Amino acid sequence: MADLTTIILTYNEELNIKECIESVKHISKRIVVIDSFSNDKTIMYAKEMGVEIFQNNFISHAKQFKYGLDISDIKTKWVFRIDADERLTKESAEEIERICTENSETDINGIVVRFEVNFLGRKLRHGGIYPFSKLLVFKYGCGEIEDRNMDEHIYLTEGKSVELKNDSLHYDYKDLTFWVDKHNKYSSKEVLDYFQIVHINKNNKKLNNSAKIKRFIKYKIYYRFPMGTRSFFYFFYRYILRFGFLDGKEGLIFAVLQAFWYRFLVDAKIYERQKYM
């Protein structure tokens, strides 16, 4: 077992929470659930799994995670943030445990976790989706999270990070109705960040390389295309140039929803705000 506290953010995750907790319990000294007052069976299932539970009104994922760090009174060397629709595999869990143990006193202060995205029951291996990587494990006191409404990243304040060789899973059991509702809310949050970042010079030097590249592409390339056309370029890049069509019907549905629904909805909300400012 690693000297590790795992923090899971939840809201109505009764379909996911058990699998998530089960995947991390063998490597975590503590598992803490920070719940946004779920009205389903999330809390009941979490209690059955024997984890610690705190509830807090949700403002943003970043603020909720900061609350989790504060309320949990962390005593372990390492902290792991994982969402309820994510889970470790046996191989990735063992790799995290080994890296944490071997680097207790080194300058390796962070671990970048790789995810394989599962959409409508199919593993998406094309379209630039795989692998989806983010820094989620860090030594307590050596990492912080960006104060953003969307697409927030954990970054190291000192030391270096390493990336896992084994994949973990991003597998949400909820349906497309939930996906659409969630991404509608995400689009509003992304618009808030758009106006903050485009008009204010933000320093991204502390982010890991993967996060830096994604941030650069979004704000220095993608948003330079005319509104109303960039979603088409996004679809062409993902589905054609990055071979998203090889993921079958699920790949087509994912690419269309991401480009012509989610990305276009963000553009429409940006236009709406600009029009009435």
From TrEMBL:
Transferase as a keyword of this entry, yes or no, is yes
Please name one Pfam family that this protein belongs to. Glycos_transf_2
Keyword terms, alphabetized: Transferase
Domain Glycosyltransferase 2-like: start-end pairs: 7-125
- Please give the Gene3D superfamilies that the UniProt record associates with this protein: Spore Coat Polysaccharide Biosynthesis Protein SpsA, Chain A
The organism's superkingdom is given as Bacteria
User: By its UniProt entry, which SUPFAM superfamilies does this protein fall under?
Assistant: Nucleotide-diphospho-sugar transferases
The family database entries (CDD domains) matched by this protein are listed as: Beta4Glucosyltransferase
Instruction: Name any one GO molecular function.
Output: transferase activity
Q: Which InterPro entries match?
A: Glyco_trans_2-like, Nucleotide-diphossugar_trans
The protein's name: Glycosyltransferase family 2 protein
